[in-house]
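Predict both folds.
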Amino acid sequence: MQRFFRLIILSFVALSTVSCLLPRAQQYEIMAYRLPTDAARPVKIHVNQVGYMLQAPKFAVAESAEPLVEFRVFSVPQNDEVYRGELSSSSQFSEWGGGPYYAHIDFSALQEEGSFEIEIAGVRSLSFQISARQWRDDTLMSVLRFFTSSRANNSDVWNADRAVPIFGSSQTVDVRGGWYDASGDISKYFSHLSYANFFNPQQIPLTAWALSWVSQEAERRDLGKDVRDRAAAEAVWGGDFLLRMLSETGYFYSNVFDRWTGDMQERRVCTFKGKGGEMSTAYEAAFREGGGLAIAALARISTLSSSGVFSSQEYLDGARRGFAYLQQHNLRHVDDGVENIIDDYAALLAATELYRASRDESYLSYARNRANALHQRLHNDGYFIADDAIRPFWHAADAGLPLVALTLYAELESDVAARTTALQTLHAHTTYLLEMAQKTANPYGYARQHFSIGRDVFEGFFMPHENETGYWWQGENARLGSLAAGVALAAGALAADGRDLPPWEPYAWAQLNWILGANPLDICFLKGSGHHNPPKYSHAKPQHTDLPGGISNGITGSDRKGRGIDWFEMPGRQHDAWSRWRWYEQWLPHSTWFMMGLVALQPSVGEMENASVTTAAPDAEPTPAEPASDVESTPAEPASDAELQRKGEMLPEDENKVQ
C-alpha cells in the first residue's frame, strides 16, 4: 500500500499556480486562526486556500479515520456540482498525528474560473479560487508591497541610522535604509548565527538580489510592468543600503542590531551571539555572512535600468571592491577559520553576478572553481557535505540556494567541461531532493533532508531542536520557498540540456501550497490571503508589525531530532510566551523566498506560446499600455514618512506602513 501511495505522489502533476488576495469585491473574511479544539471531524480537507491557476493541475489532501472513495466540487455561492472524481487509494501516515488515512484529491480537469469548495462524505472544504492569472495580479503584488511597507524609513529609525555607533568603537557610520528583519525586530541583518558556522541565513542582501532578479524576469515570464517596476524600485532601495554598509576598507558591516529592544540608543553595528544577543566586534561580513549575497545583489542591481541614491556604476564598483576584499580576507572573518558550503554557494553567486555585469573573465574563472567545490561536496546519495568531514548540508532558510547559484552560473559558463560538471551536480542534488520526499509516507509532499546531531546522520522533515546555535529552530517557510525556486530553476536548466528528472513540479508546488494552507493545521501563513492566518505576533515594535504579504515562520517539529509536529497552540503541548516567535513571527526571508519560488515556477513567454497559451509576444510589452508606474526612487535623505508623503514619493499602496 505504501509503495502504491508513493507512486501516486510521484504521478502528481504540478500543483496549481497560486493566486492571492481575491479581487476586492470577493475577498474572504480572513481570521486570525486558532486551532479547533474539536479534533473529531470524520474528514478534513486541506486545500491551498488562496487558489489554483486555471491551466495548471489542481489537487488537495483528504484526511480521514477510514479510507475514502470519491469527492465532488461545487461552485460558490451557486452550489452547483461542477466536477466529480475518485480519490487516490488511501494511505496511512501517523508521524504527525491525525488521520490515519490520507488521500489525494486531483481535480486538474476542472477548467472553470470562479470560487469552489470540495465535498467528501458530506464535509466541505474551505473555499478557494480558480483563475487564469490571479496569482500575478494579487499575490505577487501583495508580497512586493510587503517589502515597501517593511522599509526601515520611519523617522526615528532613519534619523538614528544616520550615525550608528560601531560596537567597541567611538566611530559612527551612516547605515540608513534596508528593511526591518521581522515583525518583532527592527534590526537590519546581512546574516546572523555566524558563531554556529553552518546556519548563516542570507537576509537583506538576499532580498535585494531576489528583487533585482524578479524585475529582470518580469518581461520574460509575462509578469507585467507593475511587477517589473516595483521590484526594481525595491531592489535599488536595497542596493543603496548595501553600499552604505560597505566600509572604506572594502568589507561589509554585518548587522545593525538593538538586542531586539526597539530602542534607538541600543542600535550598534556589530555581530552577536545566542538568544541573549551578546554583541561582539566581529562585524566584518564573510562570504557566508551576507558578504557574498551583497556582492551579487549590487552587481545585478547595477544592470537595472533604474537607480536610487547611487548610480549604476557605483553599485558595480561597490560589488567589485567587496569581492576583491573577500578574495583576500574571507578566512580571517569566518568564525571557525574554515570555509564551508555556505561560503561556496555565496561566493559562486557573487562571482557569477559580477561576470554577468562586467564580462570580466576573472570572475567566471573564480565562479568555476566555486562550482567545482560544490561538485566535490556531493555525497554518493546526492546530498551535499557542508564541512570537510561528514556533516550533511541542511538549512532552515536557504536549502535551495546552492541550486539557484549553480543554475545561474551554468547559464553563463562557456567552458563545456565545466558546464557539464555543474549540470551533473544540479541533476544529482535535484534528484536527491525529489527522491527524499518519496522515501516515506508523505501526504503533503513536504521537503525532507538529511540532518545530523554530532556524528549521528539521519533523515527527517523538520530541523532538529538540538543544533549548534543552542536555541534557533522555528518554522521553515523560507526553506520551502527556496527549494521551490531552486528545483524549478534547476529543472529548467536540465531540460534545456536534455537531462531528464523524476517528476519535479509536484515537489516544487507542494512547498508553496503548504505555505498557503495545504498543511495539517489549515493555516495560510501569507497574511491577508486565504481564510486562516496565524495570530498576530504580540512582540511587534511601534515601527513594524505583522503586514499583508508577510509570511510567518510556520510549523515545526516537536523533539530534539525535529520529529513530530508542533505549533504554539498545539493541544497537549505547552510553550512559554517568549517562544511564540518560533511559529508566529513574520521574517523577511520567508516572503523573499516565496516570491522567488512563485516567479521561478512561472513559464517563460516562449514556453507559454509552445503550450498554445495566449500571451504577449516576446518583444512586446507584457501588458497593455498603462499610465506611468507609481514607483519612484526614494530621495537620499527622507526626513520622515510624513515628508515623503507630502513630496508624493511614498508609494501610494504603502497603506500598511506603521506610522
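Second protein follows, with its predicted C-alpha cells after the sequence.
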Amino acid sequence: MTAPSIYSDIHHAADAKMGIRLFTVMVLDHTNNQAQRVYTSHPDAYPVTGSKPMLTNRWSRHVLDEQKPFVANRTEEFADVFGDHAVINALGCASVVNVPVIDRQRVVGTVNFLDRAKHFSPGRVAQLIALVERHTPKLVEVMQEPVALP
C-alpha cells in the first residue's frame, strides 16, 4: 500500500462513519523543525507542498510532548495555536481532532480531522483514535519514506 492510498483509506473511512469536511496528514521533520503536509482533502486551500515550522505552544506540548490527541470543538479552542484558523473557518470547519502517529516514543506525524463546530463528540473522537491506531504500523512505515511532492 502506498502512502497516498493509506491516507486516502483513513480519510474515506472517517468520512463514511461521521463526515469529515477537511482531512490532512502531516509528517514531522524533527531535524529541520518542520511539518510537511503529505495528504489533503482540499488541495487548493491546503496543498501538499505546504510546510510549516513546528512551534512550541500548548498544541505542541499536548500532541508532540505528551503524545495525546488534540481535540477542539470550537474555533476559540484552537485559534491561538492555529494561525490559519480563518482559512479553516472559511472551509466550514470550527472543530478539529489531531491524532499523533507514534513510533518508538516519538511523534512522526499527525492525522488531522476537521468539521463543523461541536462535531467531535467523545464517541467520535474515540472512533478516530481507534482508526488511526489500527493503521499506525503502515502509517509509520510510509511516514519514514522520502516525501515526493508534485
